[in-house]
Amino acid sequence: MVTKACTRCHRLLEEDRCAICNLATSKNWSGFLIIVDPDESPIAQELQITLPGEYALRVR
Amino acid sequence: MIYAIRTLVGQEKNVARIIARNVKDSGIGVSAVLVPESLRGYILVESSTKLDLQNPAFKVPHMKGAIEGDIPYEEIKSFLKPEPIIASIQKGSIVELISGPFKGEKAKVVRIDESREDVVLELIEAAVPIPVTVKGDQIRLIQKEAD
């Protein structure tokens, strides 16, 4: 199964639509980030990520 | 604090996934794991405490150890917002194709389509100059400006 990234929230998933944003996902992404604890993470705050999970850094 | 962990090249995502899964249950202060595309063979671990590599959560296959000391947050900011390669090239730049049928060939940039992130190239070693259109992520910059 191809991993895709949501074009808005950058969350990585395998569906054609992001479950949270309800937007189309893209196969063209790069960079990889796992957020374990968004409340404690300056990286998550910088990227405005509030939910734990896997994210892409750049989505086209 | 951010620490760098050395991994086998190509196994960065697998190591990151296993570490993230292990720390979730064990209560270590790891809050994020970052795998920058431009840093091969390394992953960055964000942790509120000093990394204890003796912890079984860090006994991960393909992991080759950690770098001593932590990395300032400012230094990793550039990895969080990767600039598209297309922004750093210009007409006349010499690039190398890193994927596709012309992988390994050197080429000169003829035209850049910024909205579609396409680049039109001319292969240097080809006898007849044929324009080739590729995506911006399929090239690596060798020389910014042609002499």
From TrEMBL, chain A:
It holds the Pfam family Spt4. InterPro entries: RPABC4/Spt4, Spt4/RpoE2_Znf, Spt4_arch, Spt4_dom_sf. Belongs to the archaeal Spt4 family. Heterodimer composed of Spt4 and Spt5. GO terms for molecular function: zinc ion binding. The keyword S-adenosyl-L-methionine does not apply. One of its GO terms (biological process) is regulation of DNA-templated transcription. It comes from Methanobacterium formicicum (strain DSM 3637 / PP1). Stimulates transcription elongation. Zn(2+) binds at C6, C9, C18, C21. SMART domains: Spt4. HAMAP family: Spt4_arch (MF_00949). Residues 3-60 form the Spt4/RpoE2 zinc finger domain. Keywords: Metal-binding, Transcription, Transcription regulation, Zinc. This is Transcription elongation factor Spt4.
UniProtKB/TrEMBL annotation, chain B:
Heterodimer composed of Spt4 and Spt5. Interacts with RNA polymerase (RNAP). InterPro entries: KOW, NGN-domain, NGN-like_dom, NGN_dom_sf, Rib_uL2_dom2, Spt5_arc, Translation_prot_SH3-like_sf. GO terms for biological process: DNA-templated transcription elongation; regulation of DNA-templated transcription. Signal peptide: none annotated. Keywords: Transcription, Transcription regulation. SUPFAM superfamilies: Translation proteins SH3-like domain. Transmembrane segments: none annotated. Pfam families: KOW, Spt5-NGN. It comes from the Archaea. Belongs to the archaeal Spt5 family. Belongs to the SPT5 family. Stimulates transcription elongation. The gene is nusG. The lineage of its organism: Archaea, Methanobacteriati, Methanobacteriota, Methanomada group, Methanobacteria. One of its GO terms (molecular function) is translation elongation factor activity. This is Transcription elongation factor Spt5. Residues 1-83 form the NusG-like N-terminal domain. Residues 88-115 form the KOW domain. The keyword Transcription applies.
